[in-house]
């Protein structure tokens, strides 16, 4: 743990020309541990670096005068102590014994003078440097009361697309199915093909009746699913499928918008 007063004492002794070993021996005799002494020397080290930095500054002449004043204070203090003002080195260091309550010790007097010099030096350094640039304030665009109270625009309703075909019933043209004729009528609802009705189909032979009775429901289902005349047809009812497609295509052409 570093003791500020101990650090100040070491700096004062170093300023008078005392060696580190002499200071260490003197402090050890007054009860300070090696660790406390080492920590104090570490704390006193930045003072030397600060002195070198001050000498390199453009205002080195004025600062050097202040540093010289600090040395003078240290020398006066050392002479006062040598003359008998302090009983021992321990008396100049807070934490040791020998001073009455409320009485200002030599170490405290020295510290006050040292602080005053350092404060003056800091003021000179601050006045010689340009003030730090302040960041530009961020400008935010304030909302007007009308903007604040204005409700969000309602989403535009999507209109239902128009159907592929016009609603109603539309009759296709007759188409030849070889064994007869195929003609259909389409029913459109909501623009979609909803139903296909056979108006004519081959039914003169029992075989044709059987085949078409099986094929017509399948053809109707395919047309509704495809919503057009583009269907695959029914296997075994090729002629009926082809005629169905032709009549259906003509009916849907009438139903187109």
Describe this structure in words.
Helix 1 (4-15) crosses helix 3 (34-55) and helix 4 runs antiparallel to helix 5 (106-128). This protein is α+β, with helices and mostly antiparallel strands. The longest helix has 26 residues, at 60-85. The protein is 53% helix and 9% strand. It folds into 2 domains: 4-91 and 103-127, no CATH class; 168-255, Sufe protein. Chain: A.
Whole-angstrom Rg: 55 Å
The helix count comes to 8
Biggest pleated sheet: 4 strands, antiparallel
Structural class: alpha+beta
Q: Runs with pLDDT <50, length 5+? A: 86-101, 154-161
Series of secondary-structure elements, N-terminal to C-terminal = HHHHHHEEEEHH
Share of β-strand residues: 5-15%
N→C terminal distance: 96 Å
Helix content: 40-55%
How many beta-strand runs?
4
Apparent shape = rod-shaped
How confident overall, as mean pLDDT?
Answer: 75
**Total domain units:** 2
Question: What topology emerges from the helices and strands here?
Answer:
Blueprint: H1 4-15, H2 20-29, H3 34-55, H4 60-85, H5 106-128, H6 145-149, E1 168-171, E2 175-176, E3 181-189, E4 192-200, H7 206-226, H8 238-255
Antiparallel strand pairs: 1-3, 2-3, 3-4
